[in-house]
Design goal:
This protein has five helices and ten strands. It has 197 residues and is α/β, with parallel strands linked by helices. It has two domains: 138 residues, NAD(P)-binding Rossmann-like Domain (Rossmann fold, 3-Layer(aba) Sandwich), CATH 3.40.50.720; 43 residues, no CATH class. The termini are far apart.
């Protein structure tokens, strides 16, 4: 295994949080055959088990990775750990309103991952993603670049879709990026917008 945690042999992804986002990521990994093993960890073991079972049943029609429920000890030989666990926004809340609750959840997850994860890359998808990524990196105390967040990827995708829809273009013909904090202060890089027919 290299210093990045990615090996040329078996690839293993652990997903912490088997809610809508976590289970969708797991299905995407399975359908694209991007890993050989998917492990779901969730405080709701029954939900995680049901998601893993659904994926196992779908393997005959799609990908080939194994999928199962696991525990934090499974992080020991994981190439990638994806953290999606956290409280969802309530009506009228911003992403920043989630800080107190989701920092507490993140701290608990880091405390359970840290004894096992030595070389895994960690991707944060929970909100507020930038703040949680910063604290996860700080608490894990790992090499720079091993903890990162999904940032404005979804926001960029949404912007590209809306521009393509408005201009009557195929989405693959539009290039634009959203930068900044994933939240109220993000901004489009209009100077980089390109589109062609």
């Amino acid at each position: 295994m290299s210093d990045t945690g990615i090996s040329s042999g078996e690839k293993k992804v652990v997903i912490v949080g088997a809610g809508f986002v976590g289970s969708t990521i797991a299905y995407a990994l399975m359908l694209k055959n991007l890993t050989e093993e998917i492990v779901l960890i969730d405080s709701d073991q029954k939900k995680a088990a049901a998601e893993a079972l659904d994926m196992q049943h779908g393997i005959t029609l799609a990908g080939s990775p194994s999928a199962r429920v696991g525990g934090y000890e499974d992080c020991e030989d994981a190439n990638l750990i994806i953290i999606t666990a956290g409280r969802n926004r309530r009506l009228g809340e911003s992403r920043l309103d989630l800080i107190a609750d989701n920092l507490s959840i993140m701290r608990s997850i880091v405390d359970q991952i840290k004894p096992y994860s030595k070389k895994s890359v960690i991707l944060i998808v929970a909100n507020p993603v930038d703040i949680l990524t910063y604290f996860c990196d700080k608490w894990m105390g790992v090499t720079n670049g091993r903890v990162f967040g999904s940032g404005c990827i979804l926001d960029t995708s949404r912007l590209v879709y809306k521009i393509a829809e408005y201009a009557g273009l195929d989405i693959n013909m539009v290039k634009c990026d959203v930068a900044g904090e994933h939240g109220e202060s993000q901004f489009p890089l209009w100077s980089r917008l390109t589109g062609f027919r």
